[in-house]
Amino acid sequence: MTLAPTGPRPPAQHRARKITATLCTYALAALVALVFLAPLYLVLITSLKGTTDAKTMSFALPKSWHFTNYLTVIQSGNALQALGNSILIATGVTAGTVLVCSLAAFVIARRPGRVTGGVYSYLLSGLIAPFAFIPAIRMLQEIGLGGSYLGLILTDIAVQIPFITLTYVGFIRQLPREIDEAALLDGAGPLRLFFTIIFPLLRPVSFTALVLVFTYAWNEFQNVLFLIPDADRWTMPMTVFTFQTTHSFDYGLVCANLVLTMLPVVAVYLAAQRYIVSGMVAGAVKS
To answer: Alpha helix (H) ranges present in the chain?
Structure first.
């Protein structure tokens, strides 16, 4: 009986397996990219077509390029006012969420105890608790914030607090406590310790939170629909809703409106993409 060799594989066989694995990885990545990029390309190319050409919703290039579709959307779709509303609301929600959640996470991570443990468990339950519109509307009316920008901003911040706070907690727990002790010995108070030393170290997770919260606030539809009855205060996604109702058969204009709505989110993502992965995996491995 002849025994099979048990030594290491020949270099040529090992290299062939490595090349095959690399090609499979690139093929899978190309397939995933195609799944995500094909709809974006379809919307972009349709936004530059005329009314007749856009009806087919095909991947073919436009027979004639209609860049004026964007000008029409801006002039007749109330896009500029909605853009200002979206910037105000998304910026307020993002800044408020990052500030509140980072401060809360710092206390939870640095002061373990029954109270902070209870708060941590409460936040965990908040990840699965459904949002109740009727109590939220009634509460905002009682405190005089019904139908206002501030009421919507505070509601969106409250929705994001559980997930973003827990993300910060996982990251802060990795920071050595010796940093805190050294700062306190130098005479730094709690707020100075956080804003001058701890918060700058939270840059990766803060950029992750910025992208996630800004994307949520910019694309938010339900809260705007139920909490803001005044159409003059509606955001960009709401203009897509109303614009599609008015121009339901002119897909060129509808797609142009969609492109204008997506551009700010894409810009924010591209600016902060290198921090997203490091921020999301922070706290997953305990050092």
So the answer is: 11-46, 51-54, 68-76, 79-110, 114-126, 133-142, 149-172, 178-185, 190-193, 199-201, 203-219, 222-227, 236-246, 251-280
pLDDT of residue 163: 93
pLDDT at res. 287: 42
The label of the residue with tokens 């060799």 reads 5
Cα 245 to Cα 284: distance, rounded to the nearest angstrom: 45
Phi, psi of 64 (to 5 degrees): -145, 140
Cα(16)–Cα(90) distance, integer angstroms: 50
- CB neighbours of 284 closer than 8 A, spacing ≥ 6? 170
Please choose, from the candidates 47, 10, 29, the residue with its C-alpha nearest in 3D space to the C-alpha of residue 250.
47
Measure the CA–CA gap between 116 and 105, rounded to whole angstroms.
10
Which of 133-137, 206-210, 244-248, 268-272 is most confident? 206-210
Q: How confident is the model at residue 104 (pLDDT cuts 50, 70, 90)?
A: very high
Give the integer Cα–Cα distance in Å for 173 and 95.
22
